[in-house]
Amino acid sequence: MTETLAQAEQQNDPGQRIRLLSYNIQVGIPTQGFHHYLTHSWRHVLPSRKRQQNLRRIARFIGQFDIIGLQEVDAGSLRSGYINQAEYLAREAGFPHFYHKTNRDLGHLAQHSMAVLSRFPARVARHHRLPGRIPGRGALELHYGHAANPLVLVLIHLSLGRKARRAQLEYIADVVASHRHVIVMGDLNCAPDSEEVCLLLERGGLAEPPHRENTYPSWRPRQSFDHILVSPTLQVNATRVYPQAYSDHLPVCVEVRLPEEVGHL
If 15 and its partner were Cys, which of 82, 84, 118, 257 is the partner (CB 3.0–4.6 Å)? Predict the structure, then answer.
């Protein structure tokens, strides 16, 4: 039987390929216009049946990826019906592992969090508080694969102010600088050619962003805020921004091939 080109490439390419997705889900609120920030503002405080319906749609969509970085997740408060959205999405989408961090705890009103859903167990999971004049921004650092040469993934959601973003990316650059195989993903709230992102690339030893497509607002994207940045040691095979209107941001995907020394996740 004649071997296909794809099969031949796979045999000559022993590194594992994984599909990563970064998605700001706006606590499950579907937004199709700026007017919804006003008319749907009550959904940021109170539970809604449409939110649960939308979360089920998100779960069906994200099930095709290997590692998901989620921003604007609620860890279980009044507005989410006391449902930990990270746990719910992991279960509904069939992910055996999830890691989450609550960055801003408002008790019963809101549990502002971020989460990583994964098909692979993390060897190390760390939480970081990011600097900023207004507290409540954080990062999740996960290590996968071999302990000596791990794949280090850092999920972030940065501040709106440029000064705070710069300080936060300086912090992240220090976190990843000592590692060879790094992925930094999340809602950076700035363009890929911004001064802050360029600083991270230089100090953190990361390659230029593999995509520059706009991701915000989801109904008419004009800004490129959502990114997956990788080390030069990780081969980028494909990138895509998906037109899924389940939030006010669009999800971005990057497929990478891992070096053999990382091991099989």
Answer: 257
Sign of CA dihedral 122, 169, 25, 234: negative
| CATH number, position 247 | 3.60.10.10
CB 21 within 8 A of CB 65: yes
Q: What is the pTM of this model?
A: 0.92
Closest C-alpha among 168, 57, 70 to residue 118: 70
Q: Is residue 11 part of a domain?
A: no
- Is the alpha carbon torsion for 51, 57, 60, 61 positive or negative? negative
Q: How far is CA 245 from the centre of its chain?
A: 17
44 backbone dihedrals φ, ψ, rounded to 5°: -80, -5
Residue span of the structural domain in which 194 resides: 16-262
In a domain, 2, yes or no: no
199 belongs to a structural domain: yes
For residues 145 and 126, the answer to whether their CB atoms sit within 8 Å is no
68-83 tens-digit pLDDT = 999 999 999 999 999 9
CA dihedral in degrees (109, 114, 120, 123; nearest 10)?
-100
On whether residue 185 sits in a domain, the answer given is: yes
Instruction: Please give the helix or strand (H or E) that residue 241 lies within, else none.
Output: strand 235-241
pLDDT in tens, 8-19: 444 455 689 999
